[in-house]
Every structure is written in structure tokens, then in C-alpha cells.
Design brief:
- The complex is a heterodimer.
- By secondary structure, chain A is an all-alpha fold.
- Chain A contains three helices and no strands.
- The model of chain A is unreliable at about 1-5 (pLDDT under 50).
- Chain B is mostly helical.
- Chain B is built from five helices and no strands.
- Chain B has helices spanning about 5-10, 35-40, 55-85, 90-120, 130-154.
- In chain B, α4 (about 90-120) packs antiparallel against α5.
- Mean pLDDT of chain B is about 80; it is low at about 1-30.
- The chains are: A mainly alpha, B mainly alpha.
- The interface between A and B is large, with 42 and 45 residues.
Chain lengths: ~120, ~150
């Protein structure tokens, strides 16, 4: 097996080398998180739209789309990581973690402001 | 005789201390004070050595689990203000859950970066108040919601 197996444009490896399936579990964790982002985004969009708060509804939609993008990225990244893991390269990606962290923070922040506005309005 | 310390590690010591004969250590290792530095500590890949990939991935999964917790709290909070029409405490419950969600989401990356950094430097993982905060926060929200429910019914 070539050490670059799994890199883009090369044939996929036929077997995983990781007995603990850490790589696959991590990919699934990314995918679960992406789905949770989409669900939270949809609920935010709905809650905003119900109150005619279109900025919040738009924020929710952006969060949903971002969740979808993370989902697609996670699936592609799982394949792309086979090669680096076999080579023993660094597999950390702070940028993805930062983006997901910021998206979750902005989504929660928008939700919090929406909840406070709803409480004040009543 | 004790072996000389690895210069890379010494220069980026845990407290930003000066290496014995080396250049001044990076200040980024201090506890940062700015909001940006607090929320988004420096890329941990700049210090130390790469740990076993299994630990890196476990740290990443832990970060993702915290993010999911934040997202679940946000969904619960927004669901509370949107769906619980007959319950007087729905907004208090929603605000409480969303505040917890925001705090969790805001500290998750920092926690990940500090753990990654410690693993790369071969230091003990930093302790975190996040689990305690989450347990106490959720308990408080639940108790307040229960009290509101009882008051609402009477």
C-alpha cells in the first residue's frame, strides 16, 4: 500500500490501519456535530420567523447551511485523512474547530438575544 | 547528571518563563487577558511535539461533544420559548438554557486548545470548570423550571 493512499486523486485504502477506529469515531463525531448544528439552526430560524425577527431567522438559516457544509467536509475529510494518518502527519485542524466553535457561539448568542427580546416584549 | 532540557520545550515553558540561556519565551504562553486571546488561544501546533494521533483525535472528539452539548442546550432553549405556550416559565427556562449554551460554546475551543497544547508539551492536561459549571447550571435551570411549573399550576 502506498503511503499516500487516501490522498485526493489516489485510490482509497482497502483497510483501515487503526484498531481503535479513532479516525472513524472522530469523523462520526464531526458528522453528529454538523447535524446538531443544522437542527439548532433550523429551530433558531423558525423561532425568529415566528416573531418576525428576520435577522435571527437569517442567522438560523446561515447556521443550518454552515452545518451542512461541515457535514460534507467531515465526510470528505475522513477520506483525506487516511494518507496523513498512515504517514504519521499532524492531523490537527484548528481552523475547522474554530469555525464550528464560532458558529455555535453565534447561534447560541442570537438565540439568547431572541429569548430576551421575546421576554421583554411580553 | 541531568540532561539539558529540549530547547524548544524550554523556550515555550508552561508559564512563559525564560529558558535558562535561551531567548525570551513566547508571551503567548501566559494566561491571556484580551477577549480574543481568551476565546481563541494561539494555534497549539506552534509548540511542542505532535502527540500520538489517538490522543489528538480524542481531544477533538471531546471538543465536538462540548459543541454538541451547547447546540442541544440551544435547541432546548429555543424550543422552550417557541413551543411551551401554556407554561409561564418558558422564557426563564429558555434564557437559562441559552445562556448555558453560549457559555459552553464560548469555552469549548479554548479548552480544546489548552488540552492540545499540554499534550504537545507533555504536561498534565489543564483542569476545567466547564463540567462543574454545566452540572450546576443545568441543575439550577431545572430547579427554577420546576418551581415555575408548580407556581404556574396553582
Amino acid at each position: 500500500m502506498s503511503p499516500d493512499a487516501g490522498a485526493p486523486g489516489r485510490p482509497r485504502p482497502e483497510a483501515t490501519f487503526d484498531d481503535g477506529l479513532q479516525h472513524e469515531r472522530t469523523a462520526l463525531a464531526w458528522e453528529r456535530t454538523a447535524i446538531a448544528m443544522m437542527v439548532a439552526g433550523l429551530i433558531l430560524a423558525r423561532a425568529g420567523a415566528l416573531r418576525d425577527r428576520w435577522v435571527f431567522a437569517g442567522g438560523g438559516l446561515v447556521q443550518t447551511v454552515a452545518g451542512g457544509a461541515v457535514l460534507v467536509w467531515a465526510g470528505a475529510h475522513y477520506d483525506d485523512l487516511h494518507g496523513p494518518l498512515r504517514r504519521g502527519d499532524d492531523v490537527v485542524h484548528p481552523l475547522a474547530a474554530r469555525l464550528v466553535g464560532v458558529a455555535a457561539m453565534v447561534g447560541s448568542g442570537l438565540g439568547l438575544v431572541l429569548a430576551v427580546l421575546a421576554a421583554v416584549a411580553d | 547528571m541531568e540532561a539539558p532540557p529540549d530547547p524548544d520545550r524550554a523556550a515555550a515553558g508552561p508559564d512563559g518563563a525564560r529558558a535558562p540561556d535561551g531567548p525570551p519565551a513566547r508571551r503567548s504562553t501566559d494566561r491571556p487577558s484580551g477577549v480574543r486571546e481568551r476565546l481563541f488561544p494561539e494555534d497549539p501546533r506552534r509548540v511542542g511535539d505532535e502527540p500520538d494521533y489517538r490522543f489528538t483525535l480524542a481531544n477533538e472528539r471531546t471538543f465536538l461533544a462540548w459543541i454538541r452539548t451547547a447546540l442541544a442546550l440551544a435547541a432546548g432553549g429555543l424550543g422552550s420559548i417557541s413551543l411551551l405556550e401554556d407554561y409561564g416559565g418558558s422564557q426563564v427556562l429558555g434564557i437559562g438554557l441559552l445562556a448555558l449554551s453560549f457559555l459552553t460554546a464560548a469555552s469549548a475551543y479554548r479548552r480544546w486548545a489548552h488540552s492540545e497544547r499540554s499534550m504537545r508539551l507533555g504536561m498534565p492536561l489543564p483542569s476545567s470548570r466547564l463540567p462543574m459549571m454545566m452540572a450546576v447550571g443545568t441543575a439550577v435551570v431545572a430547579v427554577v423550571a420546576a418551581v415555575m411549573l408548580i407556581v404556574d399550576r396553582t
